[in-house]
Design a protein that fits this description.
- Among the domains are: 35 residues, no CATH class; 44 residues, no CATH class.
- With 131 residues, the protein is mainly alpha-helical.
- The longest helix is centred in the middle third of the chain and has 22 residues.
């Protein structure tokens, strides 16, 4: 945590020097450029609204606490020095992992459309996103 604080302090000094070079920009005007903790920026209520989930206040508080814990842990992981670690897709080597391409039972159109907010003529009706 101390390294993060030192980085923020260093960034603050850089911004302060930048404001001296460009006097029309105040430090207050550009302080939003400083990194903020990830868990402070995540809004469960807004995300639930985007996902069309109707959550109670207790659920929102519970999920906000849980996601804050997860994001705090991710911030700890960001501090790990991985400069000598080679990037990998899998921990173990994976070779020729294929399955036979055979037909199988899947959803019927009625099953797929059962949870659609709007449907007509066996199609999903979605809001227009391009004007």
């Amino acid at each position: 945590m101390m390294t993060r604080a030192m980085g923020i302090l260093s960034k603050s000094r850089e911004l302060s020097n930048a404001t001296q070079a460009f006097p029309r920009f105040s430090l207050r005007a550009i302080c939003h450029l400083l990194p903020t903790p990830m868990n402070a920026a995540f809004d469960v209520r807004y995300t639930a609204q985007l996902a069309r989930l109707h959550l109670s206040e207790e659920e929102i508080a519970k999920f906000q606490a849980q996601i804050s814990q997860v994001l705090t842990y991710v911030e700890k992981l960001e501090q790990v020095d991985v400069s000598g670690v080679e990037p990998t897709a899998h921990a173990n080597a994976v070779f020729n992992v294929f399955r036979d391409d055979v037909p199988r039972d899947w959803f019927t159109s009625d099953d797929a459309l059962a949870n659609a907010p709007r449907a007509a003529n066996q199609l999903f009706i979605v809001p227009k996103v391009i004007e």
